[in-house]
Amino acid sequence: MPQSFLSTRAQTVVTNESTNPFHEVTKDSWNPTTNPTGYINVGIAENTLMHTAFLKYINKPLALPAKYLTYNEGGSGSTRLKNSIAAFLNKHLKPATPLQASHLLPTNGLSSALEHVSWSFADPGEGILLGRPYYGMFIPDLSLRSGSVVVPVKFDDVDPLAMDAVGKYEEAILDFQRRTGKNVKVLMLCHPHNPLGRCYPRDVLVALMRLCQRYQIHFVSDEIYALSVFENGVDERPPAVRFESALSVDLTGIIDPRLVHVLWGMSKDFGANGIRLGVIISQANRDVHFALGGSTLYSSISGLTDHLVSVMLQDFEFTDWYIRRNQELLAEGYAYATTYLKDHGIEYATGCNAGFFVWMDLGKRFCELHPGESEGGDIGEKVMQRLLKKKVFLANGAFCGSERDGWFRIVFTQGDELLSEALARIVAALEG
């Protein structure tokens, strides 16, 4: 092996990134006019359905005060921004205790927020529980720099969002303690769930909070899809569960409020991944804010983002309309994608009513079409290679910690033309 001038931890990243097809995909992106043979990317959770409306709003004159060209009030955002976010989330998440500016710590996106959470709550080698399947980037966000250990929770045939799943989390806590001699310090939820596109019932949230109280574990709810919910007019079962924020739970007698934290951001609900605005919400734990005061140097939001988001979130007339229209388009996109899948014999996880994606079993359909290919295992990788040959990129279930081989996540929020082309290529890859 040639000599490396990097640290051991950096060498690990280099090795992993060298086999990542994402970079090739982004360099050769599909365009119906200028690059019709390029890669269709329906693996990254981006929502472009409302970009025209978003751009129309932000491209009107927004007078930028000179103070936003300075460090202003520091790395964690202006008081004006925090007040705007607090008022907006009080309206939509309906917290049991109203949010105040002092409860919020803005960051340049939720990846930074997740890293801050991991660094704050878990020492190197300590555990962070994460139910399977999961958002694949949770792993590096929570462990790459902090040295914490992500502990995937296996559910077997138990619904990961049902009450029976709580016992699986407890088993994982005890197993990690036995194997390592260290403690689990965080239980990480994605609510609404990515990639399943469903919401945790309120009683399950409460039961998980009680579990965290029993073992003195931080309960962290990533609610980045909180307002990206929609009416599922396609699936009869399971019945959709209405989204209720962890903030809406009265914690009295359930859990020490210092252990409860919620994350939210602009990337998903406003289709604005590039704006880079996330927020850590910790209402009762002042130590979190003190500990991260210096770390915000590494996660500062830009003055332009601070100003833009402050203006937008204060405009309830616009945001109410935007959220409502976005939810209508999400319902249409979900119906389009799932109808196509059913028409082509592809099974998917039903009951979705949130997020941008469908969790689908391409492996089963592939084996039905190619019985001889089912031997030897790793069906997901076989399907993935066929997809890449057809130049369509999906999130492989293996990346999402799927307990079943052959599952993939497809994103349906980039317009009918792109989605139609993506679905056609997927079917061609399976049939070819």
From TrEMBL:
Glycosyltransferase found in the keyword field: no
SUPFAM superfamilies in the record: PLP-dependent transferases
Classification via InterPro entries: Aminotransferase_I/II_large (IPR004839), Ethylene_sulfur-biosynth (IPR050478), NHTrfase_class1_PyrdxlP-BS (IPR004838), PyrdxlP-dep_Trfase (IPR015424), PyrdxlP-dep_Trfase_major (IPR015421), PyrdxlP-dep_Trfase_small (IPR015422)
Keywords: Pyridoxal phosphate
Keyword Phosphoprotein listed: no
GO MF term set: pyridoxal phosphate binding; transaminase activity
GO BP terms, alphabetized: amino acid metabolic process
Source taxon at top rank: Eukaryota
Positions of the Aminotransferase class I/classII large domain: 77-426
PANTHER family in the cross-refs: BIFUNCTIONAL ASPARTATE AMINOTRANSFERASE AND GLUTAMATE/ASPARTATE-PREPHENATE AMINOTRANSFERASE-RELATED, PUTATIVE (AFU_ORTHOLOGUE AFUA_4G00630)-RELATED
Family designation: Belongs to the class-I pyridoxal-phosphate-dependent aminotransferase family.
Protein name per its UniProtKB record: Aminotransferase class I/classII large domain-containing protein
Organism the protein comes from: Penicillium canescens
Lineage: Eukaryota, Fungi, Dikarya, Ascomycota, Pezizomycotina
